[in-house]
Recover the amino acids of this structure.
């Protein structure tokens, strides 16, 4: 379609400029719909899973199969270190699930309670 990558870049730049006002208007008109959709998605099981895995990646976890690790995360009920039953994040006990990993290599180690994870460093 394009003879050179320069022609492609020129076309894309012109297209963005020509449609900038249209897209801005569209975003302004659909802001509340997008916000409602995002809120519902983040509460769904798929949205929660995506958020948790994204958090792990942001914090440096390197894993070959995040889906298998997430399934393990969902099914684990006790801390691997102190055997306390996990609580809910935000309940103030520090007993919610944390993903323990090596900060140098990014390798997963265990699921620990927040207190044990902080002690391990």
């Amino acid at each position: 379609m394009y003879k050179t990558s320069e022609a492609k870049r020129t076309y894309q730049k012109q297209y963005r400029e020509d449609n900038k006002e249209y897209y801005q208007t569209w975003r302004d008109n659909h802001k509340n719909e997008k916000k409602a959709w995002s809120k519902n998605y983040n509460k769904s099981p798929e949205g929660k899973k995506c958020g948790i895995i994204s958090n792990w990646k942001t914090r440096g976890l390197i894993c070959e199969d995040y889906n298998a690790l997430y399934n393990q995360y969902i099914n684990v009920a006790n801390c691997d270190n102190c055997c306390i039953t996990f609580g809910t994040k935000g309940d103030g006990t520090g007993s919610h699930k944390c993903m323990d990993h090596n900060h140098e290599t990014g390798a997963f180690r265990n699921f620990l309670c927040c207190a044990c994870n902080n002690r391990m460093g």
Observations:
- Helices lie at 5-29, 31-43, 45-58, 66-75, 114-120.
- The radius of gyration is 22 Å.
